[in-house]
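Table S2 (text version). Query chain:
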Amino acid sequence: MDCHSLDNAPDVSKTLTDQSSSGCKVQSKRTGVSAAVKRNENNAAGGLWPYERDDEKTHREKVTMDIKERIEALRSGDLSRRDFNTALSALGINLVMMPVGSRKASAAAADQATYFTWGGYDVPELFGPYIAKHGEPPNFATFGGSEEGLTKMRAGYVVDVSHPCNAGIPRWIASGLFRTLDTDKLSNWPDVIPALWNLEGAVVDGKPYFAPMDWGSTSITYRTDLVDLQGQEESWSILWDERYKGRIGVFASAGDTWWCAAIYAGVDFNEISTEESMKKVAAVLREQRPLIRMYTDEETTLEQALASGELVAAMTWNSSPVILKGQGVPVTYANPKEGALTWVCGAMMHKDAPNPDRAHDVIDSLLSVESGIWLIDDQGYGHSNAKAFEAIPEERLAELGLSRNPSDLLDAGKFQVPQSQEFETAMNDEFEKIKAGF
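Corresponding structure-token output:
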């Protein structure tokens, strides 16, 4: 069940889903379709652009300036993501949706690399150097969880670069679908913090398969005006509190929720795959099920529900409180006494990448100082480029709860441990049953 909300949700949540005979399909960037950013040549030829076409150069300069202004409005919160996409359409830039069954994400911009990622990372802010070199962003395709992404690629879906996290790296390599990186083609590689790329299973025979990009935590964002801790320490128990029945949201992906439930259940990550641990985690998730307002992999949905008061607490990544505080919403990001879930995510390159040189350019752009500054300052995530941290004042890092040394945050929480494919499959199957009410 991948719906944004449960059947008893109010209309505001039901508008986010498309009920069909096959179940609930989330109408968001996390639907499993691929998206390619494309200039709409038909609009351009037909004179539908909002500028007089004195000459091609002047026209492009005007369009580029307008796009930059709209990106700034998006960053400041003055423009929603939906309105941003609508504005791009008016400028002749559209999202072209392709069927899930497409074997290659090769729609509009066939000469561009394709980046297969989590929703929210399919944004131009992460690709300034790539755009400067190639004239437009890479093609984007999104998944709801990295296991979903790997499953699609196992089935024959070919992209250039994808976006796994540390717990999945050994399994991704073992799939035989990925190749080592040519770090000589990555100008930013010397500035990547070594502790982040030399993760367990990420380097084979001295050659890296994985380029770390973002790192952070999964915890609870809650409304300080609506949640009463009653003098107690912050705890994962907030998401199991009967007082907030019907006003709690968690991720639909087991890649976060199962592991966070394991922390709450007191399960050691090194023992998470045992039969006893599986039963413990499943039991607490079934206990939580009647309290849940929504399961979703769209973080924006959780943020909007927190802002409106529909939710009082939600499982989120550490970017959500940064965004919500910027909008004036009274929230905080919990430091649960049991520990937050911590992780490192990044880029891996498909062995059959249609555009291998541009694939390296995608990765290099993700590792750039420019992308790092945006990811840290605007989104509240850690970044792998040490020079990006040098550009952020200490006071701002303290405000964001970040450190120039990733270990300060990652070691303070519960760091995910790579697991077998058998465990991953069993975990996802069991969680799907729980969400469906079984």
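Notes on Table S2: The radius of gyration is 21 Å. Residues 56-76 form the longest helix (21 residues).
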